[in-house]
Amino acid sequence: MLALGSLSAPVAQEQDAPVQVQVDASQVQAIYANFSRVTGTTEEVIIDFGLNTQPQGVPREPIRLDARMVFNFYTAKRLLAALQVTIQRHEQAFGPIEVDVRKRLLKPT
User: Fold this and answer.
1) What residue numbers bound the domain in which 67 lies?
2) Is 49 inside any structural domain?
3) What is the pLDDT of residue 33?
């Protein structure tokens, strides 16, 4: 598991040492999202999450957004790195993830 934190340790600290951060997940709420929208300002990255109930083609109905996460750019960059490592590990174990649905369709035999 990869965890992101606000690491404000001095630069001289050894970078390779794993950091253990205690987390209280007793109030966490899980949501499922198959849609995200990334926007931002000069100081923040904003990611909205929602459920697209019409995943094929252009949705006829508006996609309802369920959650919004706002990050400063430092935390967003750490999140990007953690997601990259997570995807790489998954692809090493299970093969490439094709995001273009047209390339995932089975050809008729």
Assistant:
1) 35-96
2) yes
3) 97
